[in-house]
Specification:
Layout: E1 2-10, E2 20-31, H1 39-44, E3 50-54, E4 61-68, E5 71-75, E6 83-88, E7 99-104, E8 107-113
Antiparallel strand pairs: 1-2, 1-8, 2-3, 3-4, 4-5, 5-6, 6-7, 7-8
Length: 115
């Protein structure tokens, strides 16, 4: 297991038919060799789990990735009052090229794992 950076980039949408490398998240999570989150490692050091949101014409946002029963919650301020996005729990593996759903700004968007 190693704490790993995972980049998620927006998949094609009606507004972005080619997807968007400028709409992205960078997650830091403890992953095993199969891309599965090591829950014991996370539970031992949850403050190491982080997220950074890159969005055009908006300042970057940095915060924590928090494990919940619904999935991974992205919180950008402390205390965790500014909870914005959820990476749904139906994404058990972080594998290159896989797509994952994120509920952000009131809409469900698909993101591709790019590395």
């Amino acid at each position: 297991m190693a704490w790993t950076n995972v980049r998620l980039e927006l998949c094609p949408t009606p507004d972005h038919p080619g997807g968007s490398v400028s709409r992205a998240y960078l997650l830091r999570l403890p992953l095993d060799d199969h891309g599965v989150v090591d829950i014991e490692a996370y539970d031992a050091m949850p403050v190491y789990a982080s997220v950074r949101r890159y969005w055009p014409q908006e300042p970057d946002r940095a915060g924590r990735a928090i494990r919940t029963s619904r999935g991974w919650l992205f919180s950008y301020t402390l205390p965790d009052s500014d909870r914005e996005a959820i990476l749904h729990r139906q994404c058990p593996h972080f594998r290159l090229g896989a797509q994952v759903p994120i509920h952000d700004d009131g809409q469900m968007l698909m993101f591709r794992i790019m590395g």
